[in-house]
Amino acid sequence: MDFSTTTLTDLRDGMRAGSVSSVQATQAMLDQIAAVDGDIKSYITVSGEIALQQAAVADQRRADGDDTPLLGVPIAVKDIIAVDGVQMTAGSKILEGFVPPYDAFVVQKLKEAGAVIIGKTNTDEFAMGSSTENSAYFTTRNPHDLSRVPGGSSGGSAAAVAGGMAFGSLGSDTGGSVRQPASFCGVVGLRPTYGRVSRWGVTAFASSLDQVGTFGRTVADTTAVFQTIAGYDRRDSTSLNRPVPNYEAALTGNIKGLRVGVPAEYFVEGMDEEVETAVRTAIAHLEKLGAERVEISLPHTRYALPVYYLIAPAEASANLARYDGIRYGPRRKGENMIDAVKKTRALFGDEVKRRIMLGTYALSAGYYDAYYGRALKARTLIKNDFLTAFEQVDVIATPTAPTTAFKIGAKTDDPLGMYLADVFTLSLNLSASCGLSVPCGTDSDGLPIGLQLIGNTLQEATILNAAYAYEQSLL
After folding, report:
1. Nearest CA to 302 among 391, 378, 389?
2. Annotated active-site residue in 41, 78, 111, 411
């Protein structure tokens, strides 16, 4: 068994059949990390000793008759999610050396299911970025082309799966940070409905937008991880107290009669021709599988980028006020308390500082109504567009990103150009819908292209099955 290409579901079948153990699979992942991650740099922290201990426990649990869904499966976790006893930096020097004494809810769920936590993956600092170049530690590289970015901010999680260094992974998606790197790295990435997965123990960026998501090599792999972490948590005030469906059972591959909406606003001037061709071909393929194509309009899409970059920085400026060096993380000495806090907060990187300043400005007296207040009103218009669309269709199909993975350094001096990398993913977060990216081809350089499928609130089963039908029909 070639563990670097084996799917999560095939590994699970192999462990159930007794042909492979969790210790073997975990050691294979650690060996793969040692072999290739020196170039890719997907992990900030590799918890090899802990992972092997967890794998041994998983093998014993299986020997005792346990068969929980992810028992013994090595999973990577984005480094903004707390894992008890393992450093969590959020990609920032201001949290360097911080070791949380608790597990995030999603990690608790993984451990209960018997998953092996193999390490913490690199991220743009505090999840603010679209390329993983904003990490304070190093830039993660795309496994398909080491000269290109893996996307962001969950670039490390996407690259770990694409590079054969984990069977699945957790990321977070505030404006596209699961779907865009999934597109760039050629894996499947799911952003669930806001509140479907608890964010307790997850470092906050923009609290009305953040959501934990999952990566896998296939739709079934991504679904298996999502199935495990979905659910209600009373410690998260935004958590939805709704039953969790059997998402894995929903992967029937039958999409006859499925109404697929195609919004004109997502096929714009300036996007790569190869991306547009691949996505339109994928939509045509869904029609061949029995889906019905419906032309729709999301007229307020053009406001999504400015709305997002008012709301998200405003919430970030409030959330990041807690990082003062007093309660956790490194602290710089100063002549007095204020001087010490200033020197400590100077540890923030340029992009984080930029967003804090943007957000603080938007919330300041005299500007609140002109900027933040108006952004909230425009957000309602964007959400209403989706509600109207879902009265006509079951799924909305669009490109995940306007381009394939760009060269490292190509956009670092152009913040607006970097922000535009998420132009097709932002609206979903503003509307609280769910969405995923599934590979739908490659460009002439062999770089992956992603098809984005968007579903109504709590309709993850619908978009996962549509993606599964598409994926399986191409095998």
Report:
1. 378
2. 78
How does pLDDT run across 418-437, given as a tens digit for each residue?
988 899 999 999 998 999 99
**Rounded distance between C-alpha atoms, residue 474 and residue 472, angstroms:** 5
pTM score, whole prediction: 0.97
Helix (H) or strand (E) holding 315: helix 304-319
Chain centroid to Cα 25, Å, comes to 24
Answer for the pair 24, 59: CB distance below 8 angstroms, yes or no.
Answer: no
Q: Based on the structure, what is the number of domains in the chain?
A: 1
Confirm whether 431 is a catalytic residue.
no
Query: Which residues fall within 8 angstroms of residue 70, CB to CB, at 6 or more apart?
Result: 12, 110, 113, 114, 115, 224, 225, 228
Instruction: Please identify which of the residues 42, 92, 131, 153 carries the catalytic annotation.
Output: 153
The residue annotated as part of the active site, out of 177, 183, 433, 437, is 177
Neighbouring-strand partners of residue 212: 172
- Residues spanned by the domain of 138: 8-229
Residue 185 resides in a domain: yes
Position 382 in a domain: no
Give the helix, strand, coil percentages of the chain, each rounded to 5.
40, 15, 45
Q: What is the CATH number of the domain that holds 48?
A: 3.90.1300.10
Residue 132 lies in a domain: yes
| 3-class DSSP assignment, residue 171 | strand
Flag whether 28 is in a domain: yes
**Burial class (CB within 10 angstroms; exposed 0-12, middle 13-18, buried 19+) of 244:** middle
Using CA atoms of 61, 63, 65, 70 in order, give the dihedral in degrees to the nearest 10: 50
177 part of the active site: yes
Segment 54-98, tens digit of pLDDT: 999 999 999 999 999 999 999 999 999 999 999 999 999 999 999
Cβ within 8 Å of residue 214, ≥6 positions away:
168, 169, 170, 171, 178, 189, 190, 222, 225, 226, 229
Tokens 């000495």 map to which residue? 333
| C-alpha pair distances (Å), 425 with each of 3, 78, 200, 474 | 32, 19, 24, 25
Q: Is 342 tagged catalytic?
A: no
